[in-house]
Amino acid sequence: MGIVVLTMKAAVIEMFLVLLVTGIHSNKEMAKKIKRPKFTVPQINCDVKAGKIINPEFIVKCPAGCQDPKYHVYGTNVYASSSSVCAAAVHSGVLDNSGGKVLVQKVAGQSGYRESYSNGVQSLSLPRWRESFVVSEGKPQKGVTYPSALTYSSAKSPAAKADETTKAYQKPSVPGTTAQPVTLMQVPGTTSAEGTHTTLPKPSPSAGSATSSPRPQPVGHRSRELGDTDMWKPGSVLLDAGFVPNEETSTQPLDPASQGDPNCKVDLAFLIDGSASIGSRRFRIQKQFLADVVQALDIGLAGPLVGVVQYGDNPATQFNLKTHMSSRDLKAAIEKITQRGGLSNVGRAISFVTKNFFSKANGNRGGAPNVAVVLVDGWPTDKVEEASRLARESGINVFFITMEGAVEHEKPYVMEPNFASKAVCRTNGFYSISVPSWFSLHKSVQPLVKRVCDTDRLACSKTCFNSADVGFVIDGSSSVGTGNFRTVLQFVANLSREFEISDTDTRIGAVQYTYEQRLEFGFDTYSTKPDILNAIKRVGYWSGGTSTGAAINYALEQLFKESKPNKRKLMILITDGKSYDDIRIPAMAAHHKGVITYAVGIAWAAQDELDVIATHPAKDHAFFVDEFDNLYKLVPKVIQNICTEFNSRPRN
Ligand SMILES: *[C@@H]1O[C@H](CO)[C@@H](O)[C@H](O)[C@H]1NC(C)=O
Q1: Confidence at 329, pLDDT banded by 50, 70, 90
Q2: Which atom number of ligand 1 is nearest to the Cα of residue 488?
Q3: Is the CB of 487 under 6 A from ligand 1?
Q4: Whose CA is nearest to atom 10 of ligand 1?
Q5: Which atom of ligand 1 lies at the shortest distance from residue 628's CA?
Q6: Of the residues 492, 632, 635, which should be mutated to test ligand 1's pocket, given the most ligand atoms within 8 Å of the CB?
Q7: What is the dihedral of CA 627, 631, 633, 639, to 10 degrees?
Q8: Which one-letter DSSP state was computed for residue 173?
Q9: Where do the domains of the chain lie, and which CATH numbers do they carry?
Q10: I need a labelling partner for 192 at 20 to 30 A (CA). Which of 290, 409, 540, 542 fits?
Q11: Is pTM beyond 0.70 here?
């Protein structure tokens, strides 16, 4: 017994000793492990944007004081790489204003970034950016080596690398396609077209019979009076009837090593119409047109790059921007494009291009303007205006070329009248070309090339004048008085006059308030400048108390709720006195909802209230004049600040 106990004791002690020794040993090991990769955390300044740093994952040390509106942040949780790393870390709550370490991980570009106010930082929205990042606590993660020194991007042109990846894109990718494309290069007499007949969706013309009246089914897309049957009849003589304009422009020899025309550095997407109703003959004219444009453009890395998307029911990328990087290659590839068939869903195609086409992976260079040229036969079978606006708002310059648009008796079938002029920037005709007949399409080659290369004029897309929903919130309290109220309305009219107004550009709405509130007119009510100015003139003075807080809430509910997504929302609140109710919470709600709020105070208005109402920083968004007669002086200041704020947001 005694011996047994003793041996057991000894065993326990021995075990204890072993544990103790190994414990010490492993502690030492750990100590060594921590010491070994002596990783020094690199330091950056508040203004360093994530996009400047090439490393995909890194830890940096931020200084104190990055919680300053001059360091811009775009997005919420996921930030566009155009954001300040350190300010984004403050916004997300990883750091406070005293600085510290932050772990940064790059992620893919997003199609939109949401603005929000958090931890004292107002982040901004951004439609689309090529790269994003997320931030987290600056602790090294297991198994990851972090750089002690960061690699900064210096060269402006990321294009040099594009060459190696060209091969991977040789095959036109056709995402989401199910329908077999129609074989276009059919030789008269072959039977291949018979096979395609069944795969083509509506509208399917009954073989051989050319209808002569517009067909309202399925979506009012036109059938052809002549020649819409040629694709169904392989032996059709129309194929070789000499309709293809003989535009041989290949007189100047193409340098195979051409770097492209440096005076026309644009990233261009052609959206071509592959719908069934176009017919194979017109499809061929369209390809010829494309080839002529490509020939005239002198494509290359230092010049224009061109990709092609063909649409029918659904769009598909034929080539992206880096698939073919010379005019010669691209021309040869265009020759081989086959028609998809289906409807003419132009809006869907434009949305597709906005979301997918101009990505870095597709060869988008960032420094070159994005241009989309949309070719439409007749009219689209879906809606295009909204899709085009979103495209323009994400920085794409949209051109429309409409061939044989609706004639008078066909107009009822067009879903959106004047779609071509409404879908593009302004209506001065620069962005739209209407071609009366397919046979005269070749005459548009030079005008189009000239326009898409006019990079100074490609300022289209968004400007501070054409991209917002502007809601006026007007104090109609008794202290204002009838005469001064007229002055306020003049002020509202003078500001409105500065914008480009239409249902696709800037829209104006107005609310008047006292104790109560009323909607004078919403964003949808009027769509021309004269109508807006008239409506402002007609606003009747209400007279009553001053519940500014309730008015802000009302404007958010009744006015800005109707604002389109992705539109900039501007609230311009004009008051002459102190509010009877709380403004803090309503103002915060406005800021959280991304409504950029300007506060204009007159006479008895309180500066501290104006500062609370106004979007941060208040000095750029709050204004004060001591009397109504001086209100006019604020017009240029308010406009200037709206544009400065707008221009401080980066665009692709
Ligand atoms: C509005 O513009 C008109 C014409 O330029 C000017 O006479 C008037 O003083 C302006 N009023 C205000 C309040 O801006």
Answers
A1: very high
A2: 13
A3: yes
A4: 632
A5: 13
A6: 632
A7: 140
A8: P
A9: 50-160 (2.170.130.20), 262-457 (3.40.50.410), 468-647 (3.40.50.410)
A10: 290
A11: no
